[in-house]
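hey so i finaly got around to running the thing on Small ribosomal subunit protein uS9 from Arcobacter sp. AZ-2023. pasting the sequence first so u can double check i didnt mess up the copy paste, my clipboard has been acting weird all day
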Amino acid sequence: MAKVYATGRRKTAIAKVWLENGNGQLSINGQSLDQWLGGHDSIKKRVMQPLHVSKQESSVNIIVKTLGGGYSAQADAARHGISRALVAYDEQFRTILKPHGLLTRDARSVERKKYGKKKARKSSQFSKR
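ok and heres what it spat out for the 3d tokens, dont ask me to read them lol
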């Protein structure tokens, strides 16, 4: 089958994902998963979750380009993109991935700062007198 493209998003991070038949290679920004994330094992597991759930770790090759946000948001964007690419690759994966919440875009983002406040909701200390 030909290459399949999907986009994943989280906060301000975007992941462009290309998926094709292969032997289980995963490349993120031209690096392997271990080079890209280093010692962050829990985040590595989050990136690989769609492949473990659908049992496709060793049957597809994935190329991911990420931009924006931090490494955690980029990893979640990559997870979302990989999930969407798997569904585009084979529609039967939808029934496997959907109950795990892997196809839902996490829309939470940073709340904007309000005037008169130190941050979005933090106020100065209250003075009784």
